[in-house]
Amino acid sequence: MTKDRADSFLGMIRRSQRGRLKIYLGYCAGVGKTYQMLQEGHRLRSEGIDVVIGLLETHGRMEVAKLGEGLETIPRHRLKYRGVAVEEMDVGAIISRKPQVALIDELAHTNIPGSANPKRYQDVQDILAEGIHVITTMNVQHLESLYNIVEKAVGVKVRERLPDSILSEADQIVDVDLTTEDLRKRLVEGRIYPRERVEAALTNFFTPENLERLRELTLRELASQIDLRRRETSEDETNVAPDQVMVCLSSRGPNNELLLRYASRLAGKLNRNWYAVYVQTPSEEATVIDAQSQRFISDALTLAKQLGAMVFTYKGEDIADTILRFAKEYRVGHIVVGRGNRKPPWKRLGKNGSIVGNLMKHAWGVTVIVFDTRKGEPAATTRLAEIPDGMERAEPTSEPAAAAPAQPALSSLLSPNRIVIWDRPVEKEEALRALAAAAGGDSGIADLEGLYGDIMKREAQGSTFFNEGVAFPHVRLPALAAPLVVLGLTKRGISDLETEKRIELVFLILSPAETPDTQVQALGLASRAAQNRQLLQRLGAAEVPEEAMTAIRDWEGG
Q1: Whole-prediction pTM value?
Q2: Distance CA 252, CA 243 (A)
Q3: Is residue 143 included in any domain, yes or no?
């Protein structure tokens, strides 16, 4: 670790009022992530920073244990699981101690049942929310979007995973690199595992081929993160292009998870919003579809939200047509779709007989990426702008792109007058009517009853209320001067919707019909806000609209 990197985080600590996150990223156990984390802890302590070890995993490595000496360690707390005493990090004790910096090992760890949070990264988010800075460690294979790639590359199913957003939202990422030859040498010397495990490790996971693949993945991920941060701060990248990413989910698709992880990686490379869309046909209504299929699609939509997608359920009889209408409205440039087992001839008749074929015939101007989900890899990537002579060209799915305005802040689209808080359960229609009414005043919208009607018409096309605790109703209005957002905080949820996680935030987004890119911008801002754990905690604690506005401004300014 260079002195510049340590000094940079030191300056960040001294300037910031909120908790900052630094991640030491590696490609395998033994590269030195924990060692470098502890080294930085000693350096910060020598600079007068109050540092504690919140959780340290030595795995019997004497060098690591020795380096941990001299730093205050917060004792773990014991829980019983199936009659066995298990030690976990004591989040409450760390927060009560309130150090400036907590060193917390193994960010992707899964806590035992009965813990306050299922995952350690959620514990870290709670600690950050208290203004405590965290330095932590993780390996690249624990990223959710890389699950299938890692399984194919090294033949290992990674059990402990965390959302990619945790890495992308870190304030600093340090790549802890080591040549594969040196790593294997450390293993042989007994510096990673006990000697009785060395031979098996060398011939199984720690092969040169596996390590080189994981090292390459890590370097690529780091390069992607650097590029993403550069583009996020570049003036040239603040505009939203009509090139968002969309993944199409099915209740009978053999590998929705593969499609979602691929779309997540693609959207990250393009620095675009991405959407996971499930088209519910009449044969898949809740009163018709079986419980297993309901659970299948629910799990897929939950994973999509964890990966950072905006999730939508649309109703439609013609799946391909519904997908293309969505692509037009949301400025989609890439459609990711799966192709499963070949249908019998009688099922290939009718409007949904060949969904992929219909997409490739009519999605002029959009890239369609077709996955053979039986094999777990792309079967075809087709740029539909290159249609051979003699094939009919359909109309473009999106309007010609106009120059998009500079990316606004969410707080600039809100005001305290456009924040509604309910301390009681509220029904969906009541909530939408109240949010429509709150959109009046300084917006220039005179026909608020008409606005409510437009919102309900949009909801009839496909619900924007789904399982992960947030809703994004939205509508485009002609002659609206500028986009605006109305925020509803429902502390006790939407009472007439059955969702696994109660809906606590409703972002009503209104945008000018003449500039469709502004809707995409506002949706992206609201989606990022809804994925920030610290902001959600503060919004949940807000008693009056002014407190909610302050929380949003603090989040943006952090």
Answers
A1: 0.76
A2: 28
A3: yes
